[in-house]
Amino acid sequence: MKAEAAIFYGSRDLRIEDLEVPDPGSCEVLVKVKACGLCGSDIQRILNEKLEIGKPVGGHEVVGEVFRVGGGVEDISEGDRVAVAHRVPCFKCHYCSRGDEGQCELYRRVGVYPGGFSEYMWVSSHNVVKGIFKIPSGVSFEAASFTEPVADCLKALRRAKLRWGDSVLIIGGGALGLLHLQIARVLGADKVMLSDHHENRIKLAYKLGADIAFDSRLQDTRRTVLPETANKGVDVAVIAAPSREAFTQALGSVRRGGRILLFAGFQHSTIRELNFDPSIFSRDEIWFIGSYCYSPADFGEALNLISKGKVKVEELITHKFPLREMSKAVEESRNKDEYLKSVIIP
Ligand SMILES: [Zn+2]
Ligand SMILES: [Zn+2]
């Protein structure tokens, strides 16, 4: 069937065009998209023109209503409110059997088309079986669209081996930094601190439960963190802003033997600016940990955390746009004094 979808023609030229979306075949589903979060990675891909001209923009933080179901689909009916995982691993390859689902070949392929920046979205049979989660009643579509980013943060903080009683510094108070803050708390962190450059984000960090939130341009990060951690430094530093300055803050504030979680996606040009003494790996036993997307198990748990109010997501939505104003959403994201997160509603 035909659906209106956002098509990429340039960093300032997203057009809404009719796109052919497949009807659901055997064990497949067609979802009417109700909301899709605009991820920082979407914005980066659009602004850096990392998408193909004339191809759909995508959108992976997607929720909607089941519109049509193919034959053989069990437990899912038309009208169900669902969050859809765009990637689902095979659960049986070498990577999957060792808990590295993020590296599974099937996981690397996206099992939906064309993504959430579209009126309708086709879901493959594999994603139908393991990647569709019913949204509890009482949770709005907009809130449920945070399932994917919450699941990402859950996986990342688990990979960073966040433990009960840990002290955590989150560097970067964008939407993902503010999710990390709340999830670190859920996972048992004792002291949670956050640094940023924008007053609105610092205020919100306090509202969402930070022990200390500060402007790292006005206040030295290391000097702020040390007295809070018996002069040792934090157990876990989360880099949630892809800048050299964030990297430097992490190195300066993590304790010996601590973990640095590289959550933000660094640009190649920034990577070249990073320099550090490699003896931090040997002498100081500092761990560097990266993370890619979510594990399927995190998806259901993320939805649960949102529905129980343990992770507050609606406070993070600063903008809502209809699909035809997606370019405006990308433009607004530059204004960091006001922008945190936009949700696109087709
Ligand atoms: Zn994302
Ligand atoms: Zn696999």
Give structural notes:
- With about 350 residues, the protein is α/β, with parallel strands linked by helices.
- It has two domains: about 1-150 and about 295-345, Medium-chain alcohol dehydrogenases, catalytic domain (Quinone Oxidoreductase, Chain A, domain 1, Alpha-Beta Complex), CATH 3.90.180.10; about 160-290, NAD(P)-binding Rossmann-like Domain (Rossmann fold), CATH 3.40.50.
- The chain is built from 14 helices and 16 strands.
- The protein has helices at about 40-45, 95, 105-110, 125-130, 140-145, 145-160, 175-185, 200-205, 220-225, 245-255, 270-275, 280, 295-305, 325-330; strands spanning about 1-10, 15-20, 30-40, 60-70, 80-85, 110-115, 120-125, 130-135, 165-170, 190-195, 210-215, 235-240, 255-260, 285-290, 320, 340-345.
- Strands 3, 4, 5, 6, 7, 8, 15 and 16 form an eight-stranded mixed beta sheet that branches. Strands 11-10-9-12-13-14 form a six-stranded parallel beta sheet, with helices on both faces. The protein has a two-stranded antiparallel sheet with strand order 1-2.
- α14 links the parallel β15 and β16 (about 340-345).
- α6 packs across α7 (about 175-185) and α6 (about 145-160) crosses α13 (about 295-305).
- The two termini are about 15 Å apart.
- One zinc ion binds near residues 89, 93 and 95.
